[in-house]
Amino acid sequence: MELKSIPRGAELEVSFAGELDHHAAKQAMHALDEELEEQLPRNLVLDFGGLQFMDSSGIAVVMRAYRRMQELGGSVCMKNVPDQPGKVLRAAALDRLIPMDGKKAPSGL
């Protein structure tokens, strides 16, 4: 699992590459927490374009980022979501909570 962070003013883009499974989730959460604390962004973009596999542990990573951004009064979105990780995210209904690939999450949830 590889993470790359790109700060752009009030926005932080974090790119994921490799496999986000139970072995990599703890490392990803720690790295993401550090970046969020250092950058304090208003908007967080999770770029899953380099992700080859995600299991349910990836849901915890996304939810942790979502909760932290709520605490900061910011927003989070997901982009470049490949088919397999997209299935995992949709099965957990995260696409209804967090915008994915430019599609707005329904309001009122």
- Uncertain residue segments: none
**Helical percent range?**
25-40%
Number of structural domains: 1
Most strands sheet: 4 strands, mixed
Give a verbal description of the structure:
The chain is α/β, with parallel strands linked by helices and 109 residues long. It has one domain (2-96): Transcription Regulator spoIIAA (2-Layer Sandwich), CATH 3.30.750. 39% of the residues lie in helices and 31% in strands. It has helices at residues 22-39, 57-71, 83-91, and strands at residues 2-8, 11-20, 43-54, 75-79. It has a four-stranded mixed sheet with strand order 1-2-3-4. Strand 1 and strand 2 form a beta hairpin. Helix 1 (22-39) runs parallel beside helix 2 (57-71). The longest helix is centred in the first third of the chain and has 18 residues, at 22-39. The chain is globular, with a radius of gyration of 13 Å. The chain starts with a strand and ends in an 18-residue tail after the last helix. The model has no long low-confidence stretch (mean pLDDT 94).
